[in-house]
Amino acid sequence: MATVSSDLLYQDEIDGGKHWSLTLRRRTILRLIDREGGANVGMLFYNPANLLERYNAPDTLKCQHTFKLTAGHCLYSDMGRVFCSIVEDTAGWHDTVCGNSTKSLVAERWGRRSYQEYRNDWTQNGHDSFLVEAAKYGLGRRDLAANVNWFSKVRTERDGTLAFDPEAGRAGVHVDLRFDMDTLVLFHTCPHPMNPAAEYPRKPVSYELYRGDPAAEDDPCRTSRPENGRGFANNHLYHLCG
Amino acid sequence: MTKQSSLSLETAVYRKTVPAGDYWIHVVKAGQIFRIVDLEGNQAADTLFYNAADPAERYSAVDTIREQRNVYLGVGTRLMSTAGNPMLEIVADTVGRHDTLGGACSTESNTVRYALEKKCMHACRDSYLLAVAEHEEFGLTKRDITHNINFFMNVPVTPEGGLTFADGLSGPGQYVEMRACMDVIVLISNCPQLNNPCNAYDPTPIEVVVWDAAA
């Protein structure tokens, strides 16, 4: 699937255990790359024109009858619109039900490394990372929702038991998100909360921005399910009025 | 796993029937036992919890799923808050499985899931929004309407990562009961969904019952 149709606009790398945010315009493609294998990118999405509109994991999962996220899936807001769609994915499984690492979880599993002692090698956590990025836009605790964990695979047994797959993260895999509306993206590279690694996993992630094409009528994300066709119809109405 | 309650309705301090499509908002105190009864069967009770002392701390589906290492809720499940604190613990349950993945229906998600012209059908998030608008004393707004529990609903996940909506395991008179670990604001939308089998296309009433800690 040739999705990146134009020149690279921007590239950057974020070390493991860091956080950042971006406002991405409609039709931009964000490529995330797991450089070394075993990375995790926690991510939240908001409409910059109405911050009350945000990523809704339950709507995303139930309307596509899926527990995992991968190519062909759309990421929905609580207003029935598509923030972005996964136009390419070489990883195959991304989690959106296990939430974030927290200060106490990181301290319990990997020990506490303070800033005073370790400077930028301290051990940050996903929850506090989101709070910092959210506050830049006037958002707070009340605005954090269930996030995506890119590159992390958590499957379930028949009885519902969860199992984190530490073998799933492979070096060089990438996922391409085409933004189908303007979107505020908050993200961090802190470890997945179920990562069993003995040492705090500090895995770098590269990201690249490309100019993408709007979803055509036969776009695989639009046609992967009838629900997604209606999601794109809601985006169309939104942009007509915008 | 199912477990019967030893409590008798005669000793309850509060009982209320909530019709299909209505909401219920109420404070349950720490130590009190809170029961939801599926009066006619196959109903979905879409439920949110907030710390009454600090409503910015609220039920977190993802923290609950992760901490108990299971996607289904049942006896023994501790319902966790966004701050990592147990809010309530399920102490009795005659159904055996409850969903916290599927979220609440909304007019907007109905357009995606069923048809664009379903947008004016009554939905759970409308009930939530009316509840917070009519009860300003709790200080809640749309920001606070998050990822909820669907008591009595059955949403099986497959090892391959699929998700399905199955017939409910509940039936008339089945119930789930939980003990509050802190003072909690309970917000229920008794689901009006007419489009899916979660309530057999027939929304019906539920009953909510509260016992004091000494009961």
Question: What would you note in describing this structure?
Answer:
The complex is a heterodimer of chains A (242) and B (215). In chain A, strand 6 and strand 7 (82-89) form a beta hairpin. Chain A is built from six helices and 13 strands. Chain A is of the alpha+beta class and 242 residues long. Chain A is 20% helix and 29% strand. Chain A has helices spanning 57-63, 103-110, 115-118, 126-135, 220-223, 226-241; strands spanning 8-14, 19-24, 28-34, 41-47, 50-54, 74-76, 82-89, 148-150, 154-156, 162-164, 174-179, 183-188, 205-211. Chain B is built from three helices and twelve strands, in the order ββββαββββααββββ. The two termini of chain B are 24 Å apart. Chains A and B meet through helix 1 and helix 6 of A and helix 1 and helix 2 of B.
> Which of globular, elongated, flat, extended, rod-shaped describes the shape of chain A?
globular
Distance between the ends of chain A: 30 Å
Give the low-pLDDT segments of chain A.
none
Number of helices of chain B: 3
Radius of gyration of chain A: 17 Å
Order of helices and strands of chain B: EEEEHEEEEHHEEEE
| Poorly predicted residue ranges of chain B | none
Tally of strands of chain A: 13
What is the terminal-to-terminal distance of chain B?
A: 24 Å
**Based on helices, strands and strand pairing, what is the structural class of chain A?**
alpha+beta
Radius of gyration of chain B: 16 Å
- Categorize the overall geometry of chain B: globular
Q: Supply the helix-strand structural class of chain B.
A: alpha+beta
**Number of contiguous helices of chain A:** 6
* Strand line-up of the largest beta sheet of chain A: 1-13-3-11-7-6
User: How much helicity do the residues of chain B have?
Assistant: 10-25%
Multimerization state: heterodimer
Q: Helical proportion of chain A? A: 10-25%
Strand content of chain A: 25-35%
